[in-house]
Amino acid sequence: MADKRPITAHDLLAMQWAGDAQISPDGRRVAFVRTVPVIEKNSYQSAIWMAEEGREPRAFTSGQGKDGPARDKSPRWSPDGNSIAFLSNRAGKDNVWIIPSGGGEARHLFPFDEGVSQITWSPDGRYLAFVARTPKTKEEKEADEKRNKDVTVITRLRYKANGIPGPGLLDPRPRHLWVVGVADGKVRQLTFGEYDDSSPAWSPSGLEIAFTSARRPDREFEPVSDLWVVSVVAGEPRRLVAGAGSVGEPAWSPDGRNIAYFGQDGTDGASASHLWVVAAAEPEGWPNPPADLFAGAGFDRNVGCSIGGDARAESGGHGPYWSADGVTIYFVATDRPDAPIYRVSAAGGGAVERVTPATDLAVTSFSMARMAPMPDAASAGASPSATVPNSFRPRPRFGYIGANFLSTGDVYFMDEGREPVRLSGLNDKLFSGLALSTPEHFTTRSSDGLELDGWVMKPYGYAPGKKFPCVLEIHGGPAGTYGHAFFHEMQLLAAHGWGVVFGNPRGSTGYGKEFAHGVIGDWGGMDYADVMAITDYAAFLDWVDTKRLGVTGGSYGGFMTNWIVGHTDRFAAAVTCRSVVNMYSKYGVADNGYNGNRKGLAGRDLWDSEDFIMERSPIRYAPRVKTPILIMHSDQDYRCPLEQGEQWFVALKRLGKTVEFARFTGENHELSRSGKPRNRLSRLELMMGWFERYLK
After folding, report:
1. Which residues are part of the catalytic machinery?
2. Which end of the chain is more exposed for a tag (fewer CB within 10 A), N or C?
3. Domains located in the chain, CATH noted
């Protein structure tokens, strides 16, 4: 360790992030998105890169956008493997580009005024489906030019969203499904109406597309998406599944008889998202109830990877994928601090089995090639790309991004039942010279006996017999998860000579339905007890100075930071980010406040539960605060709006508390993860400066 240096805030600018791994149909190459900060433009560049065994990963696309390097993303292989379609902002908004998979110049498939997303190839490779808004007519454009831009008349309940630049106002035009010819670039709209459509998936015949859409009459108040199917030739969409909660990511079986999808089992704010299968046709007696494949298997986990990190981009998908024979379905699910690939029988009733080995890698995105050869016993020591006789039954090959506490994520592939092969080491050179702190796992129990996972990171310069400050980190959500992911912020805290402690209180994903529901209607209750139990564990360590404890968190973690300083003075310093302080006012100003926050408090509403809502609002306890606190908030944060930070600052300042307010212009709720590079550096420097002031 003597020859290694502590990590710095500016090391963020040297990192490379891999995402959205897409394996070729023959299983030999993995296309992925590589993203890097570009400090000169205070932005990011992303390109499609290619990885394969025996070669260093290499850039596959490069282009220029209107304001600098292009953002190429969403690589999708054609069924024959000869072409790759991808999205790029080279011409302004994201449009579809196609490049030969052997290399060459990319061509702009068709010009489209609107941003395009969610591209997917037809089975015969002749068409692409995508999602986009209907372009404005000539008359609409002329009317826009004449109207007063300072006035917007709003008629919909959900009229703004985090991540929309400027005032965050949503375009009222809905998103629909479209199809474009790969040869001629001719575009045709498939779905219509006042509904947003998403997640197109072609049937094996190429005659139908499954998609998800919230078309219920109460969709403004309860935005639940159902599973639909539409003919590519003509006809109205037909609803296949009206789920108990929202559905997503449909995938057809190879024979076209069934559709697998991810679906929630309710809408109460902590509903589990499971893997379901439904018949694609309308048999006699339809509707045919879909089968929850987790119910029979007793698998009490959520699909997808909910493990967060602050050094990641373009994460990609989590399945589901069918085996070539239609017998098995593959997907990613979060299990405590892990997110492996699993498999389950498509018929239901079987066990859910882990596919990726029991390592410390969380799968942040994966794709599957159905026809990779199955190795025999004689080739057990061979690499996944070894040639074996064609008489063996085909089995899947996976391409995925695997990340952990000491890796931002690299590209892997593996055949089912074999060891994975790492194809990239994007940050190996940088990280080999850094003295990174390895999180050490522990378990502890809350005041009611509930077992909790936690981790501690020793500080740079740790030596037995010395005392060090320690900072508690609290994740957002509350349905987030700490686990196998790299956190630059935590490594930076450790590099400054402070320990770090973090864990998963009730409400976190990956621990089952009962654990997730433990926070519903009880923000600031037993979740607070859990966080304090995690803190207590660190406080008992002989190297932790209990007089120099810090606390920080963002979003729900910001709520909990604010709650903590109003209920205990054991922390010497606090930094609250994109936080919540007044649950009552947040109902009416957040993009999801009218729905999500009400559900988080078990359906309590403004007119019948005012006392309870304010009782669970940190601002009520402002007079009790003794901890010096730094508030960091972005002016375009519409998930936890700026007024939350402003209220907190004004309240504490009026009361004579030690408080400062850092306001970021032009940033939204994602500042710490995808904000402008210079602003991310400023945020980290402000945080380190605050803890430096009050912990040392």
Report:
1. 555, 669
2. N
3. 17-61+291-426 (no CATH), 109-136+173-289 (2.120.10.30), 431-695 (3.40.50.1820)
